[in-house]
């Protein structure tokens, strides 16, 4: 039996916004204790047909008779629901774990996203769980109050709502930042609160690494759930193909350990399915050998007079990847101070890549700048992070085509033809980027039952062609989106004429207007929906977590902009 306390027992004097609430509704919820959450750890993964939040709270030791009808909660205005949820969190956790608009730390947090567009989102509160059980509490509380939420790992999504909840709860996983190496060093368990540099710094000293991100400040969670291209993907596959176990909080608050054997369908769905199935609180990766953390890489920058040679060298490198899968590249086409440039990133999965024959075409083109050298992995990702400036409005926007030298040149031409449309945009820095999805990468996508991306060996190799841009003012959003949309529509049209079009959209480079899950193919999209219906029949991660790439829609659907 729980004691019933007066509001004065809990409420700080400055909680003026409590007046919005029915205190009788709130107090029973305040009794939700962390100790009681142990009852849902290792419970069955499937949500039973008769599941409801009231029953779940009964299992946690909460007097159901003291709770108001769930129907009444559901009918409350969103502001009332989220006031209830955030007040409850504030009373259950310390002030460092729950931030509201009254806290100076709230402003620091909401201005910490990579994209200024996400910084403009104002959650009702920010919750920073310290344990997986805390995450379960947040999910159940969201269901009880019907307050929307978002989940933040690194906060590198470019669009509003990707990892921030307007008027809702933003759950920041930053405290779940452990890196735990197994005794035999063959596996490492990584919390979603890590940035990739955190992981690499700890593994570099052990002569190990993982197939993770290439920019230091990117979070481990979002990149892995979206697929995750690595410096080592030609050899070992994408990040999602190297995860052997996920710890997941389901819509019912259950904490489950998901492997290819324990839950093959959910395991498959988590490999590229995004945030649609639960909150992942730990990723267990296979470790990869990387003596002293050393590899080779850097940027070679070329003038316009070398563009065709650079384009051919890139195309030949992707085609030749099976001969030496240590080698990788992307090419960024841009204009700086009126000068057209090709910034070519080259890397090699071990030292002395400048001696590798596969790079001979690039070595025969004279650059105006060259930073390639032997590097320690975590330091290399810091260098690349420096070119991803914070504090600007940002967009990533892309498509995929079959690898072909002609379409690469056509896409480049279209980009520079349309680029003058951005001349009047303050701080504009649009870049067209080519990356390869090689035969080796695709071969690893069938590991452990495969992933959800819908890419088959017969499809490859492929190019991801995406436009990234930053700019300063919201008033120029339309100009930037229209420019990129026109570029991609033209490239898509040309790829279709050449018989090179592909439906696939890489989630981590997709815009808010693109329906990523649909791009995985109708069979995979339907399979993902069926899996979600089993683990989340009430659609918590479709409705209460509305941000990100949902199973049936883009983040900003029904737009006239390019949608994939």
UniProtKB/TrEMBL annotation:
PROSITE patterns noted in UniProt: FAD_PCMH
GO molecular function, one term: FAD binding
Pfam families from the UniProt entry: BBE (PF08031), FAD_binding_4 (PF01565)
Keywords for this protein: FAD, Flavoprotein, Oxidoreductase
Keyword set includes Flavoprotein: yes
Span of domain FAD-binding PCMH-type: 119-290
Membrane is among the record's keywords: no
Highest taxon of source: Eukaryota
Family membership noted in the UniProt record: Belongs to the oxygen-dependent FAD-linked oxidoreductase family.
Protein name: FAD-binding PCMH-type domain-containing protein
Organism, as annotated: Sarocladium strictum
């Amino acid at each position: 039996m729980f004691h019933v306390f007066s509001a004065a027992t809990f409420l700080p004097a400055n909680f003026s916004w409590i007046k919005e609430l029915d205190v009788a509704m709130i107090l029973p919820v305040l009794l939700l204790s962390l100790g009681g959450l142990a009852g849902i750890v290792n419970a069955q993964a499937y949500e039973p047909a008769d599941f409801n939040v009231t029953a779940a709270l009964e299992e946690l030791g909460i007097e159901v008779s003291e709770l108001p009808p769930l129907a009444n909660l559901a009918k409350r205005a969103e502001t009332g629901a989220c006031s209830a949820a955030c007040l409850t969190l504030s009373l259950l956790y310390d002030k460092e774990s729950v931030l509201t608009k009254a806290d100076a730390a709230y402003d620091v947090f909401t201005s910490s996203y990579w994209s200024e567009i996400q910084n403009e989102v104002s959650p009702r509160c920010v919750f920073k769980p310290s344990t997986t059980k805390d995450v379960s509490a947040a999910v159940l509380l969201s269901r009880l109050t019907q307050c929307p939420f978002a989940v933040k790992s690194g906060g590198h999504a470019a669009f509003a709502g990707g990892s921030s909840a307007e008027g809702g709860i933003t759950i920041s996983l930053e405290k779940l930042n452990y890196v735990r190496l197994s005794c035999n060093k063959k596996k490492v368990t990584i919390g979603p609160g890590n940035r990739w540099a955190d992981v690499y710094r700890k593994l570099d000293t052990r002569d190990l690494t993982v197939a993770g991100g290439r920019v230091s400040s990117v979070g481990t969670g979002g990149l892995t759930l979206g697929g995750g291209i690595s410096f080592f993907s030609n050899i070992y596959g994408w990040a999602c193909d190297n995860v052997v176990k996920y710890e997941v909080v389901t819509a019912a608050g259950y904490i489950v350990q998901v492997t290819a054997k324990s839950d093959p369908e959910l395991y498959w769905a988590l490999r590229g399915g995004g945030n649609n199935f639960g909150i992942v609180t730990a990723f267990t990766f296979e470790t990869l050998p990387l003596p002293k953390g050393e590899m080779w890489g850097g940027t070679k920058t070329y003038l316009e007079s070398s563009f065709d040679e650079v384009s051919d060298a890139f195309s030949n490198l992707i085609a030749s990847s099976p001969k030496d899968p240590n080698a990788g590249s992307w090419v960024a086409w841009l204009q700086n101070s009126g000068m057209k440039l090709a910034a070519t990133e080259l890397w090699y999965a071990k030292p002395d890549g400048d001696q590798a024959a596969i790079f001979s075409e690039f070595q025969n083109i004279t650059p105006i700048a060259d930073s390639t050298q032997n590097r320690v992995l975590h330091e290399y990702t810091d260098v690349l992070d420096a070119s991803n400036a914070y504090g600007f409005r940002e967009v990533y926007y892309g498509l995929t085509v079959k690898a072909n030298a002609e379409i690469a040149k056509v896409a480049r031409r279209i980009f520079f033809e349309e680029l003058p449309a951005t001349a009047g945009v303050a701080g504009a820095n649009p870049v067209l980027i080519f990356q390869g999805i090689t035969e080796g990468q695709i071969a690893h996508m069938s590991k452990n039952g495969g992933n959800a991306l819908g890419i088959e060996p017969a499809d490859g190799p492929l190019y991801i062609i995406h436009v990234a841009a930053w700019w300063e003012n919201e008033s120029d959003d339309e100009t930037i989106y229209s420019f990129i949309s026109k570029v991609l529509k033209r490239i898509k049209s040309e790829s279709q004429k050449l018989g090179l079009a592909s439906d696939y959209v890489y989630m981590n480079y997709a815009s808010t207007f693109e329906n990523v899950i649909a791009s995985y193919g109708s069979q995979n999209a339907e399979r993902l929906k069926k899996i979600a219906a089993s683990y989340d029949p009430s659609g918590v991660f479709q409705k209460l977590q509305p941000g990100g790439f949902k199973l049936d829609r883009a983040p900003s659907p029904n737009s006239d902009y390019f949608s994939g």
